[in-house]
UniProtKB/TrEMBL annotation:
It comes from the Bacteria. Residues 353-363 have a biased composition (Basic and acidic residues). Residues 339-363 are annotated as: Disordered. One of its GO terms (molecular function) is ATP binding. Residues 4-263 form the ABC transporter domain. Belongs to the ABC transporter superfamily. It holds the Pfam family ABC_tran. The keyword DNA repair does not apply. It comes from Streptomyces wuyuanensis. PROSITE patterns: ABC_TRANSPORTER_1, ABC_TRANSPORTER_2. Keywords: ATP-binding, CBS domain, Nucleotide-binding, Transport. Gene3D superfamilies: P-loop containing nucleotide triphosphate hydrolases (3.40.50.300). This is Glycine betaine/proline transport system ATP-binding protein.
């Protein structure tokens, strides 16, 4: 069962929202409604998030990301549609039932760290557990563990203003992890950080995720961040999800001109993998017969290029059991960099070079 499902979610702000949904369903656009003073923030959003997945919602400012996220944790009631969490319809829960789910099963990590300045790092990390009513010794033990997970062991007694931005965000992450919630909702969590620290946090999240296997919905306006983090990505525009897929789907098969224009500046060699460029291994070929360097299907194309420069023949792609599942000839890599999917064409008028005179070694 999916951990989280959104079924035909709509959120309309303003007058007569139900009528607005009917108009949207019968083809009216967001701009038509806006002319009447109504904002369609989210229009017909459907998707599911599997346990252990990082699901990224990416879009420009005003595209509806935060509104969507707030419907996923029940902070906002959808105008139409349902949110199912482990099969349970959040939209049908009582206020109390919803509070329980939010306190115990869902954690939020915000862009602005939302730390209490007059509480220690440990108390901040334990805050979610305090809300759950967990006794002090137990919550301090779990908060200490969570701080260790995010690399902040030893900082428990410090105050938030003694920490850098990146460290403060890690306290926010520790707070979310300490509650043992199954679902983490991260709203532009790394957007306020400097680029290098941001990258560091992305790496750390991916590293933690390998161990913890949480289900994460991550909101961002940054396509590169979406591509680095997302197992699946929903691209939003003007309230609608315009494409839903893996980073590879979006890069290789953009759904429309809007998505295509978005991906123009993405360095594809740092997103796409050997699996996208490899060809069938030829039986009896060199790739599986030698001890040269090899790659795995998920090696980034940029790294395959580096290996290819060191290996005198197509690079072998091996799976976890060591079997060759494909090869990457250098011409494929050059074609990839130059965005040329075709094979080399034979030369139609080879130029004959004059034969070189043999130069005697003794001369
Ligand atoms: N409470 C509200 N009342 C009226 N309109 C709202 C409300 N909340 C959001 N909106 C409108 O809904 C649309 C989507 O807003 P939302 O904040 O969800 O977008 P976003 O993609 O998260 O943008 P940002 O990245 O700037 O936060 C915007 O046009 C916004 O002005």
């Amino acid at each position: 069962m999916s951990r989280l499902q959104a079924e035909h979610l709509y959120k309309v702000f303003g007058r007569r929202p139900d009528e607005a949904v009917r108009r949207l369903e019968s083809g009216s656009g967001r701009d038509e409604l806006r002319a009447d003073g109504t904002t369609a923030a989210v229009i017909d959003a459907s998707f599911s998030v599997e346990p252990g997945q990082i699901f990224v919602v990416m879009g420009l400012s005003g595209s509806g990301k935060s509104t969507l996220l707030r419907m996923l944790n029940g902070l906002l009631e959808p105008t139409a549609g349902r949110v199912l969490f482990d099969g349970q319809d959040l939209t049908a829960l009582s206020a109390r039932g919803l509070r329980d789910v939010r306190a115990n099963k869902i954690s939020m990590v915000f862009q602005h760290f939302a730390l209490f300045p007059q509480r220690s790092v440990l108390e901040n990390a334990a805050y979610g557990l305090e809300v759950q009513g967990v006794a002090r010794p137990e919550r301090e033990r779990r908060a200490t563990e969570a701080l260790e997970l995010v690399g902040l062991a030893g900082w428990e007694g410090s105050w938030p203003d003694e920490l850098s931005g990146g460290m403060q965000q890690r306290v926010g992450l520790a707070r979310a992890l300490a509650t043992d919630a199954d679902l983490l909702l991260m709203d532009e969590s790394f957007s306020a950080l400097d680029p290098l620290i941001r990258r560091d946090m992305q790496d750390q999240l991916l590293e933690l995720q390998k161990r913890l296997k949480k289900t994460i919905v991550f909101i961002t306006h940054d396509l590169n961040e979406a591509m680095r983090l997302g197992d699946r990505i929903a691209v939003m525009r003007d309230g609608r999800i315009v494409q839903l897929g893996t980073a590879e789907d979006i890069l290789v098969r953009p759904a429309n001109d809007y998505v295509a224009s978005f991906i123009q500046d993405v360095d594809r060699s740092r997103v796409l993998t050997a699996a996208t460029v490899m060809t069938e291994p030829q039986s009896g070929g060199e790739a599986d017969a030698c001890g040269c360097e090899t790659v795995t299907p998920d090696t980034l194309v940029a790294d395959v290029c580096a290996v290819s420069a060191r290996v005198p023949h197509p690079v072998a792609v091996k799976d976890a059991s060591g079997g060759v599942v494909g090869v990457v000839p250098q011409s494929r890599l050059i074609g990839f960099v130059g965005d040329e999917p075709g094979e080399p064409v034979p030369c139609d008028s080879p130029v004959r070079l004059p034969e070189r005179k043999q130069v005697s070694a003794r001369a």
